Amino acid sequence: xxxxxxxxxxxxxxxxxxxxxxxxxxxxxxxxxxxxxxxxxxxxxxxxxxxxxxxxxxxxxxxxxxxxxxxxxxxxxxxxxxxxxxxxxxxxxxxxxxxxxxxxxxxxxxxxxxxxxxxxxxxxxxxxxxxxxxxxxxxxxxxxxxxxxxxxxxxxxxxxxxxxxxxxxxxxxxxxxxxxxxxxxxxxxxxxxxxxxxxxxxxxxxxxxxxxxxxxxxxxxxxxxxxxxxxxxxxxxxxxxxxxxxxxxxxxxxxxxxxxxxxxxxxxxxxxxxxxxxxxxxxxxxxxxxxxxxxxxxxxxxxxxxxxxxxxxxxxxxxxxxxxxxxxxxxxxxxxxxxxxxxxxxxxxxxxxxxxxxxxxxxxxxxxxxxxxxxxxxxxxxxxxxxxxxxxxxxx
Length: 396
Ligand code: RM4
Ligand code: MN
Ligand code: MN
Fold this sequence. Notes:
The protein is α/β, with parallel strands linked by helices. It has 15 helices and 10 strands. It has a 5-stranded parallel beta sheet with strand order 4-6-8-9-10. α2 links the parallel β1 (about 20) and β2 (about 65). α6 (about 155-175) crosses α7 (about 200-210) and α11 runs antiparallel to α12. The radius of gyration is 21 Å and the shape is globular. The model has no long low-confidence stretch (mean pLDDT about 95). One manganese (II) ion (MN) binds near residues 221 and 292.
């Protein structure tokens, strides 16, 4: 690869960081059951340990996303423990995710629930999550809601919209100045008739009404098939409303498969829109890149490392788009040349340059192979196996 292109890749890789989710290391399953892995993490300490390994090998995952219900068993009182684990394992707490869907009280929703008691509880939990984030110096609180309904006529859609506006505003008032509220949307699941925040437009309107620290979170798996996600990204960038991503890939719905496993060109196009925007503006876009995946059959840590490597690779490819040439081709409506700018970059093999970059950082050239050779998995399988394999879950 030409020296100039490697230079471009090196420059962009310096700024590329991606957050990994604590739940990606735990034994999760489909709604039909779980296939357990002996080495899966079940305590918050184990999740930090695994995330620390991924960061040590890749060098680009300094933060871990945390779910309040799953990772803070004692709520606010767990802050000190989490902070000390972060120190011990060399990864910082990243986005804090309130859990507004698992408790029985949320059967008919959280912020959209017609019962004020459920809405109040959801708000309390949101405020606790904001306090937890503050206690850990985390900037982003990511809100995802399972709220919706399963049957026509069963929910007052407009009333629920109003409740969402009010509750999000109240939560926004509790934010500290340095914090952000990220509003995630999803078209369906678990609700199958209507979802209260079903798409980016609804998330955008609600974020705008909530207040200036609210932005939209794009989970790549939360779209109808064939929807043009990079256009949504471009619009949100232009509106200064793009807060971050939950990356994952899918073939059908919210499959949470590893990034780029089904459609790497889709991820490339998203990264391209961001880098093109940054080139035009001459400054970095303030966006949190996060992974939201749960791996059922692939080894959890291997899948996470594979994901991070793939994300880096697709980002590096997008960095190779010749922006001057592209802008000129677009201006003169030279369609074939413009499209070629993307295709040339996408088909470049950036792996040698990334390996070189890793070497300059003292990182293993191939983090996946290094992980396999490290013996870490065998060790944790031995330590965690007995407990993990006896905790089978069933569908009914
Ligand atoms: C949802 C959504 C949220 C995630 C939950 C577990 O589909 O993607 O971000 O926290 O799953
Ligand atoms: Mn998500
Ligand atoms: Mn999801």
